[in-house]
Amino acid sequence: MQVEGRTILVAGGSSGLGAACVRRLAARGARVVIADVDPAGERLSAELGDRAVFSPTDVTDEASVAHAVGLAVDRFGGLSGAVACAGILGPEKLLAREGVPSGANFRRVIEVNLVGTFHVVRLAADAMRAQPPGDDGERGVIVTTSSIACEEGQAGQAAYAASKGGVASMTLPIARELARHGIRIVSVAPGVFETPMIAALPPEARRSLAEQVPFPSRLGEPDEFAALVEHVFENRMLNGSVIRLDGAMRM
Ligand SMILES: NC(=O)c1ccc[n+]([C@@H]2O[C@H](COP(=O)([O-])OP(=O)(O)OC[C@H]3O[C@@H](n4cnc5c(N)ncnc54)[C@H](O)[C@@H]3O)[C@@H](O)[C@H]2O)c1
């Protein structure tokens, strides 16, 4: 599917990898719905003019996601693509120095990263199946964001790794189910990218992460993620897989 003239919802589009997708897809002529809890998406949408609209969205709240999907249909006449980027890190040790943390943080990370992605996928797919079929009967494309932590999570990342493992694992069954509607789904598992999520780490930790990338030995640029997302939209044979984007990094 060429993105020009298509409407694409980007959950988590106010910042980092999602914002890079918003910019690249809009530059290629797509109309973009920025769905995020962070109102910074309002400024990004204003910058892009009538190619974009911001919908304040909490992905853990089905009604809020449904509203963003409805806005795509009402404003732009349908929905052909969705990129699920909303996510949080929520690091927490299993055994704290004093006592054992409750399951609240674990539940929250699963709720945002995994259940939130599920809401975006299913509600976007429901709108996509109403689209007229294009070449090969294609109606829509969904890209989710896993992480290399789904296979190589670090200490303190039990919740994050579990959530991203879930995002990766659901890719194939969803691809199989949505095939008859002409909807593809692919998950991208990034290594470490230069975004506000990573900027929050101490400089020494960021330097050490960059050094662990064999080549190129640096953090990924958000637009390199967005370029892969664009390619997934365009390449109809990509379906049901999880693609690592990590410069050969193994954490
Ligand atoms: N940056 C990396 O190195 C890296 C690596 C692997 C995976 N990822 C994943 O990529 C995705 C994007 O991360 P990023 O690095 O751009 O981080 P980021 O913090 O810059 O962006 C995340 C966005 O998600 C939004 N968000 C958080 N909770 C939300 C909710 N409940 N509802 C709606 N929006 C919500 C935030 O407001 C923010 O705009 C995340 O899922 C993250 O886990 C990032």
UniProtKB/TrEMBL annotation:
The keyword Oxidoreductase applies. Its EC number is 1.1.1.100. The keyword Heme does not apply. Keywords: Oxidoreductase. Residues 6-196 form the Ketoreductase domain. InterPro entries: KR_dom, NAD(P)-bd_dom_sf, Sc_DH/Rdtase_CS, SDR_fam. It is an enzyme of class 1 (oxidoreductase). GO terms for molecular function: 3-oxoacyl-[acyl-carrier-protein] reductase (NADPH) activity. It holds the Pfam family adh_short. Belongs to the short-chain dehydrogenases/reductases (SDR) family. This is 3-oxoacyl-[acyl-carrier-protein] reductase FabG.
